[in-house]
Amino acid sequence: MSSSQFTFSIYLLTFAFFLQTIFGVSPPLYNICSGSENFTTNDQYESNLRKLLGNLNYQTPPLGFGLGSVGWYPYQTYGLALCRGDIAAADCKACVNEASNEIHKRCPYNKGAIIWYGNCLLNYSNKDFLGQIDNENWFYLLNVHNVSEPTIFNQKTRELLSQLAKDASFSVKKYAAGELNLGLGESTKLYGLAQCTWDLSTIECFQCLDDAIDQLPSCCDGKQGGRVVGGSCNIGYEIYPFVSA
Ligand SMILES: *[C@@H]1O[C@H](CO)[C@@H](O)[C@H](O)[C@H]1NC(C)=O
Ligand SMILES: *[C@@H]1O[C@H](CO)[C@@H](O)[C@H](O)[C@H]1NC(C)=O
Ligand SMILES: *[C@@H]1O[C@H](CO)[C@@H](O)[C@H](O)[C@H]1NC(C)=O
């Protein structure tokens, strides 16, 4: 990513934090409208999509993940929603609800789209992507503050996130959060999280998280915090506790 996109991300993160305190659900971090195919108003795809989003809104909050498909080819639509592993069902519900409304505004006629929030992601497509790793859609967020000893800090970050990648892959909820003793000038501890969508197998989840970890040098080299966020998995770290236990 270019430095202008970094600036964009930093701006959004700060902005998101600010708005969250006012409205409850923060604005999206990022979205992608997949432009290759469109539908028109009142066609069968639109009503299938509406039904799918309704299902995801209903299905996702209790467990934190939902997936499904509605209709038949050529109007079939596939989708999933994932909430961050540590948030309450009510916050999950608010986030998925907001995501469904917002994606409709941002990508009104696209057959495929994906939108990310701090608390959830929502994705749909006319192609069956369920159970496949999304290798294409990634973005980064970073904490602008530098660390004083980047080599050892980066190494510790990798160590923590590799452990969390293993833990998340083998867990039922495909989510893990944890901490590591750091003992550096900035902080005594480092905090992290790793999460996959539940349609991935243990091996696929691990592979996705491993790819995310490999992007740390281009994302967040020597920074006090960062997120590598994809359509199938994401990782994050900070020197302060940023997830609920
Ligand atoms: C789909 O719609 C977008 C705007 O919403 C437009 O830019 C794009 O060219 C359209 N694609 C096709 C294949 O019609
Ligand atoms: C999500 O949506 C995008 C855009 O439609 C698609 O390319 C991708 O394969 C989808 N799947 C996942 C898991 O992100
Ligand atoms: C962090 O380090 C980079 C490169 O060394 C520098 O350009 C940047 O201004 C520093 N950022 C802060 C917040 O100190």
From TrEMBL:
Keywords: Repeat, Secreted, Signal. InterPro entries: CRR_secretory_protein (IPR050581), GNK2 (IPR002902), GNK2_sf (IPR038408). It comes from the Eukaryota. Residues 1-24 form the signal peptide. Residues 27-129, 135-242 form the Gnk2-homologous domain. CDD domains: Gnk2-like. Pfam families: Stress-antifung (PF01657). It is found in: Secreted. GO terms for cellular component: extracellular region. Its main location: secreted. Belongs to the cysteine-rich repeat secretory protein family. This is Gnk2-homologous domain-containing protein. It comes from Quercus lobata.
